[in-house]
Task: inverse folding
């Protein structure tokens, strides 16, 4: 596991953490859809073109899962994360098509120490994912549980 | 026919049950969410969730899988009865997704959907937006996840 360098105290409102870029292939769109969301527009280019999505497009849950991995590789793997209780909202703003290159960021909206769990804070993030044309494809807000910094360590 | 005619508000539809094996949980997590509590039973004990548990996105993908399975069966049934199934389209997103309890290795999650409201879109004649509440319940009867979904419907 990578070294943990971000604790609750590092997530100050307004601070932004980049996600890792991700090139989305037709093969992975079809693989995810075959297992979890086998609708025609997620399975073939022809059906995608015939739909209002305009081409072979990722399941929204695939886009959300790709965002998760982009966030993990971007910053979450170095954060003292304890997981999340949920997502306040998530918008699938534009289709994610085969060949799209995604990028994005998580920005701290607010943070507070947990009342019920000692040593844990809740940090609320705004997450934004864009395609190579600069169009926002996914937007959402959610709280993540993050451990407080052990007293002897210096801030990142 | 419209979705609101098929399953009016108040009719909760059970779509199916999905098993979450340790192997499935780890396979999904390796690809999309490799946090220690989704990868290793031993490491998971040191975290808030306390045991190997599924990525929340895996739990959501399970809802979708069971819905599509139900919907394919339902549209085939309606067609066979000479009825025209509702034409559902894509979703623009969701709200208030709560991962209420962890989904642990070995859990069976039973998913359901209930229509709350169907609204005509002023900007797109012949199109409705349906708002649904979507749930997953484990084998002990505990709700593990719920959210408010949206799905477009065409005339």
Result:
């Amino acid at each position: 596991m990578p070294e943990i360098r971000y604790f609750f105290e590092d997530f100050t409102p307004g601070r932004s953490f980049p996600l890792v870029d991700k090139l989305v292939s037709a093969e992975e769109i079809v693989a995810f859809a075959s297992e979890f969301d086998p609708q025609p527009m997620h399975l073939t280019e022809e059906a995608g073109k015939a739909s209002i999505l305009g081409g072979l497009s990722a399941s929204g849950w695939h886009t959300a899962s790709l965002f998760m991995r982009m966030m993990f590789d971007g910053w979450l793997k170095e954060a003292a994360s304890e997981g999340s209780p949920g997502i306040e909202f998530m918008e699938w703003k534009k289709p994610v098509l085969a060949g799209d290159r995604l990028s994005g960021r998580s920005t701290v909206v607010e943070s507070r120490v947990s009342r019920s769990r000692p040593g844990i804070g809740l940090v609320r993030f705004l997450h934004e994912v864009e395609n190579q044309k600069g169009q926002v494809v996914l937007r959402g807000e959610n709280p993540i549980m993050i451990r407080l910094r052990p007293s002897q360590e210096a801030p990142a | 026919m419209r979705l609101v005619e098929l399953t009016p508000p108040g009719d909760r539809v059970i779509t199916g049950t999905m098993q979450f094996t340790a192997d499935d949980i780890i396979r999904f997590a390796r690809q999309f969410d490799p946090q220690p509590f989704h990868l290793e039973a031993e490491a998971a004990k040191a975290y808030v969730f306390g045991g190997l548990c599924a990525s929340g996105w895996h739990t959501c993908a399970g809802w979708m899988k069971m819905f599509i399975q139900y919907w394919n069966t339902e549209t085939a049934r309606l067609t066979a009865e000479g009825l025209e199934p509702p034409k559902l389209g894509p979703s623009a997103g969701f709200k208030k997704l709560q991962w209420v309890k962890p989904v642990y290795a070995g859990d069976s999650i039973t998913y359901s959907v209930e229509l709350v409201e169907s609204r005509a879109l002023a900007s797109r004649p012949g199109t409705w937006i349906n708002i649904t509440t979507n749930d997953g319940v484990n084998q002990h009867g505990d709700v593990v996840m719920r959210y408010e979904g949206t799905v477009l419907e065409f005339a």
